[in-house]
Each structure stands twice: as structure tokens, then as C-alpha cells.
Specification:
- The protein is an alpha/beta fold.
- It folds into two domains: 261 residues, Aspartate Aminotransferase, domain 2 (3-Layer(aba) Sandwich), CATH 3.40.640.10; 132 residues, Alpha-Beta Complex (Aspartate Aminotransferase, domain 1).
- 40% of the residues lie in helices and 15% in strands.
- It has 16 helices and 14 strands.
- The strands form three sheets. It has a seven-stranded mixed sheet with strand order 3-9-8-7-6-4-5, sandwiched between helices. Strands 10-11-14-13-12 form a five-stranded mixed sheet. A two-stranded antiparallel ribbon has the order 1-2.
- α8 links the parallel β6 and β7.
- α2 packs antiparallel against α4 and α2 packs antiparallel against α11.
- The protein is globular, with a radius of gyration of 22 Å.
Length: 401
């Protein structure tokens, strides 16, 4: 299903990621546009009744309705599939739509899910609240403990669900070991790869079956639109994903897909520069705060594993102050860094997880996860890192730490 001309995927698969992020999946109409066209249409017209019947039977190429497929969305999906090394991508309206769809499309009452305890707050709600409402059993484990994954398996286990690095504690899960444990019993591994991005980590190369993103984050990278992506093989799409996706209306809007295509063009360079900046900021904070968490530093508890799986330390770091009051005072003292619950933006953003991203998580579970009242998560952007450091330095001096 595509417009007039496009580069064959057998060619685009040979390109390197930075090239794929700019040119992969591009289709051109008869007008020969260089930038991707924006198809703001809900439906499509046909030359004849025979043609539309053939399209609905799947016997003829072409689009039928934008709740199912849209040319601009399809270009974004093709580009994401190339970057991830997946056979199929499905673009959703939000990141949480991607996470929920990846789980619900394949699970039934009586199934069992094993999930890492360190997940984004809304993902924990899916596991703790939503899935049990539909008769799906769930078990929470410390994702860092391979033995815990092994012990949690049951005859009815169908999915392992995890995020690595995790939000906001940056826990690392051994993707290859955990994937092997899941596949021994025929379970699928669903990975939230938002923090790492496809630039730094490719979970499918390490054994994962399904990879999900909130495209709202680094893929857009400028705080403009919402979006999500699910990546998988064709068999999973045929057997589970596409029917659910099509009939429940999960598809991304054409406009958001167009914006995200523009974001992908600079994803590689933005993420790498943000990682460089984050490493400098982390080095500054080391010794200035009671506890610092950044996978790229050797003092991070899982540094070796992180560097086995990731190309760099990432764009996110977290640190602990002594109390919620100190955390609020520091956030309120910032002049450059914005207070926001988003990540992956070109602007540096700081948030207080306990009262924002993980507010819906019970206080006792927050403590279990390592989310303290004094914790701050910092997404480092594209500013000059010295300006970010000076902003933090001034704020920390106000606290007399």
C-alpha cells in the first residue's frame, strides 16, 4: 500500500541507521516531492466498485480508510521498522496506546504476565490494575534479578514485560538472559525501549519479540506531538496485532506522523549529542548530591551490563536529595532547566517522579522501586552543557549541599 514511487526495502535495509532515519520508507507521488507528503484525509476514492472490493479483500494494493492505514503514517511506520530492524511497525496515537495494545492484543483471561517492577507509572497501572480486571494474572519481579524471572514463570505465562533502562531508577534488565528464559516456555518479550531509543539499543537483536516506544519523547524530540510505535515480526502482526489495532482505532494521526518523520531525520545526532551532554552533567553532579544514577558512569551499579546493551549512557539521569522539600526547592530555583514530566526533548527537563510520573503508584511501591521523596529525574537536552551545569550549581548552592 503506497503511492507511486519508493525505494525497495531490499535496498533501504542495507543503509546505515543515520541514512535510514532520513530516507527510509519515503514514498513519492507523481508530483516528485522531496519532503514526505502530508495526507490529511479520512477516506479514499476508487475508480470502480470492483477496485474497492478487491482492496477490501486484500487482493489489490491501495488504501481504504485512515483508521486502518494512511500514506503518511505508513511512511513513518516503514522508517521505524528499518531503524529497529523489525518486519512490521504499527504507529499509535500515544506511547501508552502502544504499550497497552502490545499487551492486550495477545493476552486472554487466564494468561499470566511477568513484569519488571521498575516501569513507567502508567505501565505499572496496566500490570497492577487493568490486566487483572480482565482475568489476566500478573507477577512483579525485580527486573535486575535473572533468577527472579525464572522463578516467576508458570505454565500459563504468555508475556514478559519490561523497560530498560527503567523510568526513573534506570534499572537495567539483562535482555538476552531474560529473553532466553521467556522463550524456553514460549512466552513473548515486550520491551519499552523509550529511554534507550533505537539509536542506543536494539532489543530485538538481544532476543526481544516486541519493542514499544513513546514517540512523544526522543523521536519527536521537541515537545510538539504525541505518538507511539509497536514493532514486531509479521507473524505476530498477522496473528495478534493488526486486527486489534485496526478494529480498536489505535492509529496515529497523519499530521503527527509527518511531524515525527521530521523528528527522525535528526534523531541520531540529537541523541548522541544529548548523551555527551548528560555524561558531563552526571560527572558534575557526582559528589554534589547524596546519590547519583547514570548508566554511563562506572559507579552505576549495573554499568557493565548497560554498556554491553547500549551504545552510550543515555540522555537521562536521576539523583536523590534528602527530602521532598529539598527537591522542590531545587526545582523552583532552576532558571534554565524547565520543570516538566516529559523526557527526550531538545530542552533540558527536570521532574519529581513521586508526585508526577509515578503519582499513581502507591507510596510503599515507590519505596520498593527506589523512588524517594527527594528523587529528581533529569532529561538532558541540547543546550551547552556548561549552562546546564551552572544552572544546577547555582540551585544546589541555594540548598547548601
Amino acid at each position: 500500500m503506497k503511492p507511486r514511487t519508493g525505494v525497495d526495502r531490499s535496498i533501504t535495509q542495507k543503509w546505515r541507521p543515520a541514512t535510514q532515519a532520513i530516507r527510509g520508507g519515503t514514498w513519492r507521488s507523481d508530483f516528485g516531492e522531496t519532503s514526505e507528503a502530508l495526507f490529511l484525509t479520512s477516506g479514499f476514492s476508487y475508480e470502480s466498485a470492483d477496485e474497492v472490493a478487491a482492496r477490501f479483500r486484500g487482493e489489490a494494493e491501495g488504501f481504504t480508510y485512515s483508521r486502518q492505514t494512511n500514506p503518511t503514517v505508513s511512511m513513518f511506520e516503514e522508517r521505524m521498522a528499518l531503524l529497529e530492524g523489525a518486519e512490521v511497525a504499527r504507529a499509535t496515537g500515544t506511547g501508552m496506546a502502544a504499550m497497552a495494545t502490545a499487551l492486550l492484543c495477545q493476552l486472554r483471561a487466564g494468561d499470566h504476565v511477568v513484569a519488571a517492577r521498575a516501569l513507567f507509572g502508567s505501565c505499572r497501572w496496566l500490570v497492577d490494575t487493568l490486566l487483572p480486571q480482565y482475568g489476566i494474572e500478573t507477577t512483579i519481579v525485580d527486573g535486575r534479578d535473572n533468577e527472579a524471572w525464572a522463578k516467576a514463570r508458570k505454565p500459563n505465562t504468555k508475556v514478559f514485560f519490561l523497560e530498560t533502562p527503567a523510568n526513573p531508577t534506570l534499572d537495567i534488565v539483562d535482555l538476552r538472559a531474560v529473553s532466553d528464559l521467556a522463550h524456553e516456555i514460549g512466552a513473548k518479550v515486550v520491551v519499552d525501549n523509550v529511554f534507550a531509543t533505537p539509536v542506543l539499543q536494539k532489543p530485538m537483536e538481544l532476543g526481544a519479540d516486541i519493542v514499544c516506544y513513546s514517540a512523544t519523547k526522543h523521536i519527536d524530540g521537541q515537545g510538539r506531538v504525541l505518538g507511539g510505535v509497536i514493532l514486531c515480526d509479521k507473524k505476530f502482526d498477522d496473528e495478534h496485532l493488526y486486527a486489534y489495532f485496526r478494529h480498536t482505532g489505535q492509529i496515529m494521526s497523519a499530521f503527527n506522523a509527518w511531524v515525527l518523520l521530521k523528528g527522525l531525520e535528526t534523531l541520531d545526532m540529537r541523541v548522541r549529542r544529548m548523551c555527551e551532554n548528560a555524561a558531563k552533567v552526571a560527572d558534575f553532579l557526582a559528589g554534589r548530591v547524596p546519590t547519583l544514577l547514570y548508566p554511563g558512569r562506572r559507579d552505576f551499579p549495573q554499568h557493565a551490563l548497560a554498556m554491553q546493551q547500549m551504545a552510550a549512557g543515555g540522555t537521562i539521569l536521576s539523583f536523590h536529595l534528602e527530602s521532598e522539600r529539598q527537591a522542590f526547592d531545587l526545582l523552583n530555583a532552576l532558571e534554565l532547566i524547565d520543570i516538566s514530566n516529559n523526557i527526550g526533548d531538545s530542552r533540558s527537563l527536570a521532574t519529581h517522579p513521586a508526585t508526577t510520573t509515578h503519582k499513581a503508584v502507591a507510596p510503599e511501591i515507590q519505596r520498593e522501586l527506589g523512588i524517594t521523596p527527594g528523587m529528581i529525574r533529569l532529561s538532558v537536552g541540547l543546550e551547552d552543557p556548561q549552562d546546564v551545569i551552572e544552572d544546577l550549581d547555582r540551585a544546589l548552592k541555594i540548598l547548601t549541599l
